[in-house]
Each structure stands twice: as structure tokens, then as C-alpha cells.
Amino acid sequence: MRIGVFINFCLIVTVLGLSLLIFLSSQVLGTLDEITAAERQQYKSLQLANELFRSSEDLTKMARSYVTTGDPIYERFFFEILDIRNGKLPRPRDYPITYWDVNNMPSPTRDSAVSLMELMQREGFSEHELDLLRQSQRNSDNLVNLEKQAFAAIKGLYDDGHGNFTRSHTPDRDFAIDLLFGERYTAEKARIMAPISQFMRELDHRTQTTMKNLQSKFQQQILLILGMLCSGLLVVAVATAYMRRNILHPLNYLSRQASSIAQGSYSTRCDISTHNEIAELGSDFNTMAEAIEHEIIKLKQVKESLHERLKELNCFYSIRRGMEAGSLEEVCGTIFVHLIAAMRFPHISSIRIELDGKQFVSNQYDQDHARRLQKQIMVYGKAYGWIIVFYREDRPFLLPDEQNLIDVIGDDLGKWLERKQAEARILVERELRVRDAAIREFAAHVERMREEDRKYIAREIHDELGQLLAALHLEISLLKGVEDNRKRVEIVRRNMSELVDKADQSVRNVAEHLRPASLELGIISALKKLTDEYRKHSGVSCVLRLMKEPVELDEDQTVAIFRIVQESLTNVTRHAAASHVEIILSQEAGDLLIEVRDNGKGFDATGVVGKKSFGLVGMRERAAVLGGRIDISSMPQQGTVVKVRLPVKDAKGFRE
Questions:
Q1: Which of 139, 147, 196, 629 is deepest in the core (most CB within 10 A)?
Q2: Each residue of 206-219: pLDDT tens digit?
Q3: What distance lies between CA 646 and its chain's CA centroid?
Q4: Cβ 520 vs Cβ 555: under 8 Å
Q5: Got the DSSP string for 419-485?
Q6: What average pLDDT is seen over the chain?
Q7: Buried b (16+ CB within 10 A) or exposed e, 272-293
Q8: What is the model's pLDDT at position 655?
Q9: CB–CB of 320/408 below 8 Å?
Q10: Burial of residue 536 (number of CB atoms within 10 Å: 0-12, 13-18, 19+)
Q11: Could you tell me which residue, 511 or 224, shows the higher pLDDT?
Q12: Residue 501 host element (H or E)
């Protein structure tokens, strides 16, 4: 059976079964309602029969109480009970109630008056049952007449012969008591209870029969529903077995075969023996598996080809990235690594690169390799070298692909060499221009410094030495007029001596400015005197850390170091606003290190590179002339360090 027909059949059976179950359930609910209604009717019927019995008992109690006590309230209760039963007074709430408790009077009601007999007729009693109740009520009415005769005797009224109690006479309580407690009253009372007892038996028989019929009907309906459920379970079991055999098992088998294909077993096929849609699905699955297997074979071939192309692309881009920075040796090493990896048989490949008389070979290079692929490297249109790839003879070449890759790499290497040569020329030209500009600026600066020195010398000679000589000339002229005055001569002589001393000091200051005399004693003495004068004139704490043994320097090195330190201290005074300066001389790897450290406000070292600072330019030029270099490191609010490195010998340790 086809799955679609099976599903439709199951759907129809399910709908019909559910509809029948719903119908039977509604019938069961109806039967339950009938049982409930029958029980309610039975209860009400018994309640009404009990009310007839109770009313008769209450009338007897009220009558006997009245004739015994003579209290008129019992007479009033008697007639109220009688009028309620006969429908002359409305029925109170919660009726029937006892009338023995005078304080618990019946609650009034707004309902219309209805007799007990009419209520019984409303409850659907049978005619025979109603006849029994009417007979009981007639007997009760006869008893009421007897009770009314007793009431009249209590009041002194007697029967006039026509059934009316209008004849007056002396009240006779004993007669009234005898009427209500005598054998006649008891017989009449028994006549009332006999129909009621028979009514109760017939009512109970009728209601029991009705209840048994309804319960039997309910049980039959429940059994029918259970039968339907069992049939439904049987149908479900059969449908489940069919689905497992013809649907679930084939689907599970098909799923396993699909998983097998997903795991790479593309030769998997399905063999389904059912005659439904799953068999068609299995046939389609086999067709799909054959198509997948065919496409996978094609994809593997394409993948192998793409893998080779991808290796070539990776090689191409890796080599290009390697050419962005690095030396010629590094670029050749990059070519060796990536180009060999991109070859069809990298384990038997080797490379040799020949450039302008230089030769670079890979680690696997073997001169016995006979097969080769090569590309001539051109730089600015001229032959500059070769790139050659070797294979052993036991392996063929993939000539079109591998030769194209080698050609591209050879062209890129030629362009890289052209770019490097162009960059080298540009850097050399730029450096020469910068160097020429710096030399010109420094020469102009040196000329200005020389002019400043001339001005200083002229100012010192004119202002200091000239004035001293004029004063000396004046003192000499004064000697002419005081030759006989020894005391005056002594004063003039002393003044002339002081003027000569000052002139001598002025000459020494000019000489010290042009070239400090302490330089003749070596760099250590010169730095000590420079440090002392700096502390004296600037007021800044300055510490000098020197070598344990004096270093041997020539005159140019001594002057250069002194001027560099002097310029560094000048910059500290002008710009740093420091409170402490430290000068250190030490040795490192055969070089003399001179460091000037301050704790001043510092500056942005990168921002000073492009500015014209002739003091820094002069310091760098002095160091460069001696084969050394200067490194300046500084950060805002973190001080400055000027480090000078000069190639010297024989310097060990340092001391404070």
C-alpha cells in the first residue's frame, strides 16, 4: 500500500472513531444527567411524602397540645399548618419546620400559595401514587374534623346536627382529650399512615427500577466506549507495525546510507523492497548517489589542479610580500622557500640565482641535476642574471605552469632590483642634499660664532683692556706732578699695579674663552673645572662621574668631548629648568661613553628632528668627525639624556 493511501485510510478511521467516541460520550453524559435527575426527583418525592407525614404529625401534636394546655397559639399553629398544606397560605422558607419552638417561627415568603397535592402532581407522580396520597389526605381531613370537634369542645361549642359547631354549652376538656387520645383517634391516625406507607413502597420501587435501568444503560454505554477504545488500540497497533515495517525501517536504512555517503563512501547504494513512495525515494537516492560520485571524481581532479594553482598563488604573493622589505640575501631566501614549496615535486627541487656576478643557491642544490627551468632577470632592459630551477631526471616537468611561475618571479625580482637601485639613488641624493644643506648651515653658524668671538674679543679689549690702559696712562701722567710726594707716589704706584693685574686677568679671560687652559691637562681636569664653574654660575647641582684611570685622548677628541659637554650644559641652563645634572664617563666594548643626564622638563625628541638646532647639529658634527655618534632621548617632564659614543682605548671602570 502506498503511504498516501495508508495515511488517508488512517485519517478516515481516526475521524470516524473520534466522532463515534464523541457521540457515545455525549450519550453517557446524557445518561448521567438522567440519573442525576432521577435521584433529584426521588429526593423531592420522598421529601413531599415526608412533608405529608410530618404535617399530619404536626397537626396531631398541635391539636393535643391545645386541648391539653388550652394555649391558643397551638390552635393558630394548627390552622397555619393546615392552610399551608391545602394551599391557602404561602409556604415559608425552609419548610417543613417544627412548631414546638415558639421563638423559631416560620419565616414569611413572597411566593404564591400552593397546596401539597399540587406540588406532588408537579413532581410527576403516577395516578395510583396520587390516589394513595389523596386517600391519605382525605383520611387526614377526617381526622382534622375530629380535631376541630375537640377544639370546639374546649371553647364550649358543639355540633348543631348539621356539621357546624354553633351550639353553646359548658366547655368540656375531658371530652376533648378523650377525642384526641382515644381509640377512635388512633384508628383514624392509622388509616392516614396506611396509604402513605404503601405510597412510599411504590415510590421506592418505581425510583429503584428507574435507577437500575439508567445504571444498566450507563454501563452498556461505558462498555461500548471501552470496546471502541480497544478497537482503536488494535488499529493503532496494526498501523504502527505497518509503519515500522514499510516506512520507518526503510527510512532508517535510507538514513544510514545517506550518512555513509556523507562520510565519504560515495559508492553506497540503496536496495528497498517496499512498493511505496520510499522505494521511489530509494531509486532517486541511487541516482543522486551516482551523480554525486561522478561530481566528486571531477571535484577531486579540479581540487588537485586548484591545489597546484593555489600553491603557485601563495608562492607568488608570499614572495611579493617578502620583497617589500629586506636585503637581497633575504629576498633570495624567501624565493627559495616558497618557490620550492610551489613545485610539483618540492623534495627533488633546487634553485640557483645568479645576479651581477653573485650566486645564491638553495640548501638542496646539486650540480648533478640535469633538467632545468630558467628565466633571465632583466634590470632596466639589460641582462642582470638568471633564476634557474633544477629537477632530477626521474621526474618530468610541468612546463607550462611551472615555467610561467618562474617567469613571473624572475620579472618581479628584476623590478625589485630596479626599485632598490632607484631607492638607493634617491636616498643617496637626498642624503647628499641634506648633508650639503647641513654643512652650509653649519658653516654659516661657525662663521657667526667666529664673528661673535671677534666681537667678544673686540669688546673685551675695548671695554676692559682699553679702559685699563687709559687709566694706567692717566696714572702715569699723574706721576709727573707728584715726584716729591712719596705718599702720593705710592698710591699711584699701587693703583697702576692693580690696573696691570686687571689687564692681565682680562687677557686671561679672553684666552680662556677662546681655548680653556684646562684642556692642556686632559679631559678629566677640563670637565672638573667646567663642572665647578657650572655649579658656581648656575646654582644647579652637578655631579661628575669619571673613569678610575684617565683615558688617553688626542687633542681633537679632548676638544670635541669638552665642547659637547659644554653645549649640553648650556642647553640645560637655557631650556631644561633642571635642579640636578649628572655627567658620566664610562667604557663599553672599546668605546668611550659620555652621558649628560638632567631631571628637567624634557622635550619631544621626535619634534626636534626637523628643526634647525645648530647646537645639536654642532654636537653631531663633532662626534661624526671622530667616528662616533650622539643619541638624545627625552620625554616631556621626564628629563633628557645626551649619550656620546667615541671609539677610544684603555679605559677601565669609573669613579665618582
A1: 147
A2: 778 888 888 888 88
A3: 60
A4: no
A5: HHHHHHHHHHHHHHHHHHHHHHHHHHHHHHHHHHHHHHHHHIIIIIIHHHHHHHHHHHHHHTT-TT-
A6: 76
A7: bebebebbeebeebbeebeeeb
A8: 36
A9: no
A10: exposed
A11: 224
A12: helix 486-514
- What pLDDT does residue 610 have? 47
* Full set of structural domains in the chain with CATH: 3-229 (no CATH), 518-656 (3.30.565.10)
Place of cell 435507577: 211
* The three cell numbers locating residue 277: 513512495
Out of 254-268, 429-443, 639-653, give the one with best mean pLDDT.
254-268
The yes-or-no verdict on residue 653 having pLDDT over 50 is no
Looking at the DSSP bridge assignments, the partners of residue 375 are 387
The residues, any chain, with a CB within 8 Å of residue 313's CB and separated by 6 or more, are: none
- Mean pLDDT along residues 544-555: 76
| Euclidean distance between CA atoms 26 and 162, whole angstroms | 64
10 Å CB burial of residue 376 (0-12, 13-18, 19+) is: middle
Closest listed residue to residue 530, CA positions, set 476, 566, 504, 500: 566
> Are 277 and 4 within 8 A, CB to CB?
yes
C-alpha cell at 402: 611551472
- 9-13, 421-425, 451-455: the lowest-pLDDT one: 451-455
C-alpha separations of 600 from 118, 352, 607, 633, 640 in Å: 125, 58, 17, 13, 7
Can you read off the three cell numbers belonging to residue 465?
A: 683692556
Q: Of the ranges 193-202, 249-258, 486-495, 506-515, which one carries the lowest mean pLDDT score?
A: 506-515
How far is residue 405's CA from residue 318's CA, in Å, rounded to a whole number? 13
| Strand-pair partners of 103 | none
Angle between helices 127-155 and 3-69 (to 10 degrees): 20
**Alpha-carbon distance 517 to 533, whole Å?**
14
Residue 597's nearest CA partner among 656, 542, 516 is 542
Helix (H) or strand (E) holding 376: strand 371-379
With cut-offs at 50, 70 and 90, classify the pLDDT of residue 656.
very low
Please give the Cα distance from 438 to 443 (Å, whole number).
8
Average pLDDT over residues 525-537: 83
Question: What is the residue whose three cell numbers read 455525549?
Answer: 26
Rounded Cα distance between 64 and 346, Å, is 136
Angle at 85 between CA 79 and CA 91, to 5 degrees: 95
Q: What is the pLDDT of residue 439?
A: 67
Cβ-contact 616, 564 below 8 angstroms: no
